[in-house]
Amino acid sequence: MKFQTILVVDANVMGSLACIRSLGRAGHRIIATSESSRAIGFYSRFTDVSLVQPTYSPASSFVEWLDRLIEQYNIDCIIPTEGLLLAIRPWITIYQRLIPIPQGQEEMYRAFSKFDLFSAFLVPYINNRLNLHIPPTALVTPSATMLDTLKSHEGPYYLKADAIYAKNEPSSLVSKFFTLADIASVVPEHLKQYSRFIVQSHVKGQGVGVFLLRWQGTVLAQFMHLRLHEVPWDGGVSSLRRSWWHEKIYQDAIARVNFLNWNGVSMFEYRWDSSTDDFFSSN
């Protein structure tokens, strides 16, 4: 096995820390970077070099720093985050050889967009199975808001905008509204900030996560959890969970990952109603 020098950016987040630990334990040399000088990944015994990275904006300045870093430390591989991939998007062809994601550019960046994912899942003639177990969803663009599709569904409603479609600073957004009238009133302003976004109505149930490792079209590993506590409490990230299994949810996730043709690690979120055994893909 050839040991490599691996750059792990955004070492302040837990996902990057997990990569540092796993790759470092395997014997690779880890270069960890973060905008924060106190990033948790800097304190791992598996980190060989800790560096404060510049902000992703302006992207041109960040790319200049990245080029110097790659040359100075002879980087073999970059473990990317959404922030990094958005920053280097205009130059992605230069760096793609260092990024361990086998997908093409279109497939890779689609993974960072709720709008693109739900647009694909909602197309009726692509795969009828993918149209099922989807929350009531309106696709909002400058030419069509489609909010009328949510009139028969109760609130609250969630406006979800992707960093990839931000017109200025690349940041994502999730905002909660109690009426469609409230959402309609802010659509023009949000379209000044994002070229497109989705609005979804609330679906009840507990949070479920399906985790898959798929490579060359084959699922090599899988795991599922049921969320017991979330932050915030009415829907968010898991703060307490337990391993769990639901075969129909698993098969739904398999259908979606196969449709997306995603190779690597993926995670699908669901809401499961224990009273009806119904479920909805939420992310």
Describe what you observe in this structure.
The model has no long low-confidence stretch (mean pLDDT 93). With 283 residues, the chain is α+β, with helices and mostly antiparallel strands. It is 28% helix and 29% strand. The protein folds into three domains: 5-100, Rossmann fold, CATH 3.40.50.20; 136-201, Dna Ligase, domain 1, CATH 3.30.1490; 206-281, no CATH class.
Offer a quick outline of the entry.
It is built from eight helices and 13 strands.
- Total number of distinct structural domains: 3
| Cα Rg | 20 Å
CATH names the topology of the largest domain as: Rossmann fold
What is the CATH C-level name of the largest domain?
Answer: Alpha Beta
- Structural class, judged by helices and strands? alpha+beta
Strand order of the largest sheet: 11-10-9-12-13
Number of helices: 8
What key phrases describe this protein's structure?
283 residues; alpha+beta; Rossmann fold; Dna Ligase, domain 1; 3 domains; five-stranded antiparallel sheet; 8 helices; globular
SSE inventory with pairings:
Layout: E1 5-8, H1 14-25, E2 29-34, E3 49-52, H2 59-73, E4 77-79, H3 82-87, H4 92-95, H5 105-110, H6 114-122, E5 137-140, E6 157-161, E7 173-177, H7 180-193, E8 197-201, E9 206-215, E10 218-231, E11 237-243, H8 247-260, E12 264-273, E13 278-281
Parallel strand pairs: 1-2, 1-4, 2-3
Antiparallel strand pairs: 5-8, 6-7, 6-8, 9-10, 9-12, 10-11, 12-13
